[in-house]
Here is the input.
Amino acid sequence: MSILEEGTGQLVGWHDPDENRQWVRENKSRELRDKRMTTSVLDDIDGLGPSRKKRLLKELGGVKAVRAASLDELRALTWLPDAVADNLYAKLHAPSSSRDPRTQRAARALPSARPRPPVPPPAPNEGD
Here is the structure.
């Protein structure tokens, strides 16, 4: 084993904490984004598999465009059966609480819409 002169070579096992912080900043948002994007409102629709879903998103331009499409527009797609178009339209235009589990969590987190009862006025002091 030879002894290196000062200033030559690399420190073994040393890492820069700033590099670690930078890596966490860059990859944490990616990890969260990937976790959010694992489900779609189109996943649970009967008759709409991965290939039809991909084609639907490509032809209409995204989930927002699919939601904005009318039932007649969905039925006009020759490759999409009418029964699947009906299921798709019904799923996307159902009340929001049954449509997306993320909105269910958000709705539970909100305080109730009932007004609070009025606060009674303070009791008068007898010593006045």
Q: What stands out?
A: The mean pLDDT is 76. The radius of gyration is 29 Å.
